[in-house]
Amino acid sequence: MKKAILATAALMLAGSAFGQTFVYPDAWxxxxxxxxKEGGVYRTSTISDYKTLNPFTAAESGNIPQVITDAGGMxxxxxxxxEYIPYMASSYTVSKxxxxxxxxxRKGMKWSDGKxxxxxDFITAFKINTDExxxxxxxxxxxxxxxxxxxxxxxADTIQAILPSVVADAIEVLAYSPAPTHVFGPVYAAKGAxxxxxxxxxxxxxxxxxxxxxxxFKSYKPGERAEFVANQYFGEWNKNSAGKSLPYLxxxxxxxxxxxxxxxxxxxxxxxxxxxxxxxxxLRQVKGAIDGGKLKAVLRxxxxxxxxxQWIVFNWNxxxxxxxxxxxRDDNFRRxxxxxxxxxxxxxxxxxGLAQPAYSSVYAAFTQWVSPDLKKFDYNVEAATALLxxxxxxxxxxxxxxxxxxxxxAEFDLTTNSGNNQREQLAxxxxxxxxxxxxxxxFKPVDFNTLVTLLLSDGDDRKFDAILLGxxxxxxxxxxxxxxxxxxxxxxxxxxxxxCLAAWETQVTALFARGKQELDFKKRVAIAQQIQNVQxxxxxxxxxxxxxxxxxxxxNIKGEYPTALQTSINGPRNLETTWLQ
Length: 581
Prior knowledge:
- With about 575 residues, the protein is an alpha+beta fold.
- Among the domains are: about 10-25 and about 70-195, Dipeptide-binding Protein, Domain 1 (Dipeptide-binding Protein, domain 1); about 310-545, Dipeptide-binding Protein, Domain 3 (Dipeptide-binding Protein, domain 3), CATH 3.10.105.10.
- Helix 9 runs antiparallel to helix 11 (about 420-435).
């Protein structure tokens, strides 16, 4: 979940200008500008209630702040070229030493309340995101080797960023979104971080929530739905090549359902417009409904491996339970747990064969980045038993569970988000296999918001044992997470003490910084692979499986990417150019 930022010397032109209107390239849509229709509501579903409307405190994928800022920030990724292009910037320049970036903002951009989007809004976003007391998920992306990027306002429409050192992914780092100064600025000035964290809760009236994206927040009812309507000011500077304002839709709704099964049923019943089958059974149901004439829809199966990861992570920070803390910090114990991860069974039983074993922090979708030399602790109960003996668990009690010399049972709670059928199945398979080696795993699913709160907690005494979850999002230029790999970062989830506790953590942190500064692509890939090799040996994250990605949407939903651009990394569409027939 890589997020980012901003850049004085002699300047050379480095970007291209689209003028003051951003024109969505025709290559981004399978529809011709002349055939689109306006109006309608795009309907989807999610299995988790939302935590907040606050962009500075939200951390989970698909949160409401992401929904209303989906179009992009200073720069946007062009799926047709694989390059970043100016978006909220009309143009930009970079100094010869590549340390100073000057971004010229498009004139005429407005927030959903009609206020102009100006340089101060990017300054405000930077200040709040880099306030450690706010705890923003984007915090780590604004630092390079622990040194902050400096950003200053040149004038109302110009921002300059000064990087502490050259980095390969600078344009991604600077592709961040603004924050409305007229909303957050006064609160931050008066109340600081505490004031910001108290803003934009789920009870905040919709008219107070300001958006720079294609949609603005309308309403939210926990357990029912979130509603969004088109931002009329977005279309003043976002248009198609024929000059028509975007978005085409009047709005979108996201229904809250109890689990993935209910999400599928909603799609098959015609209550939602899109669904991504997660396994072979769901794929068969969607295909059967289409073939049987019950569902008029498009199905794109096996698009590619997921641009996400799934893992089990063990909590190293349990000061109040030193025996369990010692167990989780023991390399042999974690390696044993990886040996007890029956990835083949997970692939077959959970995904119907439409997945592959995973061993790396780099998403399987980034095939050229995944190391060919990963240490793989494949399913092997005997090997796990031997490693558990090295960790001190040599005998079994009367219940058949391993105990150490102190009489402590090899036991822990494993938590995932309830309602996510696939994750629940993965956890149960793991628990069943662990029992074969004498390890007691207590499976305890909880609601997603509780799970995220546990995972993001920090300090020396965090209140969980092990969590099964995943990550998505992140960078394309260097697909390792700024806020994942280095010690002390927000999603360095096994160790949130704020410092490295193992020598290999220190090694990975240093390698990550080297890779980020390496401009040569092949050398950067090599460093990323070295990081993966180190991590795979110590198994701080026990990576599980990478499912294949499938897309489906009802036939009246148009404007998806051309087929060649529909990948697990890009997704199937831009909502800005989606329309209903």
